Amino acid sequence: LGLQHMLAMFVGIITPPLIIAGVAGLNAAETGFFVSMALMVSGVTTYIQVTKIGPVGSGLLAVHGTSFTFVPMAIAAASEGGLPLVLGMGLATSPVEMILSRFIRQTRKIFPPVVTGTVVMLIGLGLMEVGITDFGGGAGAENYGAPQNLILGLFVLTIIIIANRFGKGLIKVGAIAMGLIAGYLVSIPLGLVDMTEVANAGWLTIPRPFKYGLSFQWSHLLPWIMAYIITTVESIGDLTAVAEVSGEDVTDDQHIERLSGGIMADGVGSAIAAVFNSLPNSTFSQNIGVIQLTKVGSKVVGIAVAGILFFLGLVPKIGALVSVMPNPVLGGATIALFGMVATSGMKIVTKNGLTDRKIFILSIALSFGLGVTFRPDVVAQLPELLSTVLSSGITVGAIIAIGLNLLLPDKNEKKIC
User: What is the dihedral of CA 251, 58, 285, 224, to 10 degrees?
Assistant: First the structure.
């Protein structure tokens, strides 16, 4: 059962570090270490979440992994200050989630679905450029856009579509993983995979706290805070769903306490991740489907998942195998993943129906958010700090969505669909 959960979440864990490693300019060996740390930390934070250590953890079968929500912020930080800035911002802003864990009811009211869903849509849409770049061969590739790259990416995407639409059980849940494996295997005889780094990698990864160091810049603060707020609201929904499919009561005070511990585990886990050279962690929603599939919500399964992930992180050859994956293979999967992120945001917005008010907030926030993403130079003439903060389309979209939600009345409005 633990192995099934690991297969469902493996791609979600390794993809963000692969993307950020590319932006930060890490070589294959460093990328392998970065991936190994992501797996190891996910194992540790899953254990904390599942077992509930004091006030930290939900006690539910809620597994942890690196969060896609932070990828745009991490890309911006890695472009400017490398991994030290990524890890420093992740650690400095992790208390946001710890604080919000004490105010669960208020957080849900201030950040309703129309706000969080809009931001999630912006995250998914903004990442499309990253996905299509890898699909074509990767940034700076000499053969970018070559037919071989496009065909390989399409092959991976086709496998994912077939597995998702026609597969059942674990095949359907693990569609992304199946596409990556198929693409990887096809790439080997084509000579696209260099196994030298895999052969040179050892058999034991030694965790090194603060290996890359930490740095901080005020200009990146607001986007990272916003990411933690969005992650908090998403995790509240995920933990509630896990409790429901596990047969727990989600209407009593015990559930609020459970949510509080779960969000605290998210924050503490993200702080641990930064210390041990990994990206922020959050509760994974895709594993809810595995609980529904297996009909088992025991935390013993979560402990097994934690052990498997930690073991995988201990073996450098696994990280090395992932690090030499051809860009078109990764692109074929991330195109699907980022599309799912965007549409999941749409699903959040339309929760409890769609109204004229929601459409108005969504349209204005998306227009400005995507507009700034495409043309960040539109705010270049503003004061430096303000210009840097508002050059993030996600931040701009979030500010507008929050402001319009607070300003526009929401009384007796009829659903239009």
Answer: 110
